[in-house]
Amino acid sequence: MKNALVIAAREFEEKRFVAYAAVAFAVLPFIFAAIPGLKANPADTIAMGSLVFGSAFAVALGVISGASFVGLDLSDGRMSFYFSRPVGSLSIWFGKLTAAILMIVGTFGFIIVPARLAAGDHWTRLVSTTMTWSVLYMLVIAIALFLIAHVISTFARSRSPLIVFDFAAAVICGVVIRLLILPLIAGEAFNLLRSLGIALAIAVVIAIIGGGAWQLERGRTDRRRNHLALSQFLWGTMAVALLIAAAYVAWVVSVKPSDLTSHIQATRSTSGPFAVISGTAKGRTDYHAAFLLNSEDGSMTRIDPHAAWLTQYARNGRSAVVPRRAGARTATDLAIYTRGRSEPAETGLTINNDDGFTVSDDASRIATMSNRILSVYDVAQKRSLASVRLPEAMYLRAFFVTNDVVRVFLNVRDGMKIMELDVRTHGLHETGFISSGNAGRVYPDSSAAHMLLRPIHGDTLTLNDARTGAPIKTLVSGTQLKAARYLRDGRIVFIDGTNAAAVLHILAADGTPLRDITLGAKLLPMFIGDDGTRVVLTDVDAMSANRMLESINIDRGVIERREPIHEWVPSGFFDPRPPIGPLRDVFYIGDGGHILAWNPATGGKKTITGG
What we know:
By secondary structure, the chain is an alpha+beta fold. Among the domains are: about 1-155, no CATH class; about 160-255, no CATH class; about 480-610, YVTN repeat-like/Quinoprotein amine dehydrogenase (Methylamine Dehydrogenase, Chain H). It is built from 11 helices and 32 strands. The strands form 8 sheets. It has a 4-stranded antiparallel beta sheet, with no helix packed on it. The chain is elongated and about 100 Å long.
């Protein structure tokens, strides 16, 4: 320890000119502040000048000191002076290292502290609002550059062919780090990424500092032996660190759906086997994993977490269109996963992240909406079939009536426009209009020939022509309507009544009443789907305030099953028509935030996440 301090003192003595330069840079901000005619406040000038000069001085000193730290003494033959004295290699290394770091920190502080005292409140205001880095951050950069410059200087001044190996090792380390970072970025694990960066930075510091001590111990005054020893220690340490990091990252990304325990999001195909689930797992901090599940065969595919709320499911239940962020991460590629196929079909279609899209019944065509431009894209041909500009609207909803015709409902200032784009004629035509007093939510039937219309203002439900909007029949009026929709077979269901006595009504396709089923005290009912025999809805029990799933047998007129839930997992089904296939099972969030699959026909349950 004593010998190290003696060497450090000698380093200070040899480089005292650095202190003189620091004095000059400390005075410069005050000189600039005293220049007459400057519009800036003198205190702001002093604060800003000291930060700029102090940062630049520390960085420059770090690079210069690192480059001449040990490598220059070795190449000039001066290292023998130290070894001719009764001191060990560790004392030489840590003495010189201590002096270099103290000079960087000391000169930086010598420039900053007087300005800090003189600027007062102006310093605090400037640093907290204008500057994007802290004093500590700049010192860390300067010291990091010092250590890096030392390594480069040792390698370069040795004039050894071993530098080719060092270059290759550095490239390999860079590639490995990039491979470790990419899955964490894809999983939006920015906290974990920061922790990994800090851990690897610490490993680099340990490798360089330990390697410096090792190089003097093994190489002494021989520059090539110094190079070899430093190279062995540096790359060996980095190899161990990267192996540990790789093992940890591999464990992080190996998460399975059953491991997910928090921040869970999901969407579910109403009639098909596909579901998208994303979330974080215990011990993996903020790493988000997302999966496309096939409940039919139990298979799963890892997908971009970005797709959790944007995946759309084809109405026939056979396909899922999954967005996947492209390289710029402001754009999204669309891929189609289909039952019975192990690999997704690349659509070749790239859209902006904020663009909307909808898919045809068989997912063979995709309609995109971007800046009022409606385009229809053919997946097999990988080309656009038609593009038209839509009128300005407050809200729009589009779906494929057939593979060639896209129908659009546009909420405009004075009502709702109904328009159709036919790719065969490339024309956009207005087919109907509903005045603002009657416009509202629409629920088309499976053929898109008729629709239920529920005005935004008013408590009525009407049967309308889905293409023209022309009213056909008023189904209910003034009965506290709560929810309505078409079933897959064309029958109509709606719920009305007071919160204490809600009633489910079943009507024929022409609006003729068929059956009424008493539900009891219900709040916020919402239809989920049907299997031909049962209608499944989610609601809140008005007495207990518990959210429930309810399976209602519409042929027998009874509630067959109830399942308490925390939250229903919604469908990623953007087509307003009922799905083609029957409802299979319902995903919901239960106790502990876990997702479970519930079969409304049998009441069977299966844990999907957190199991």
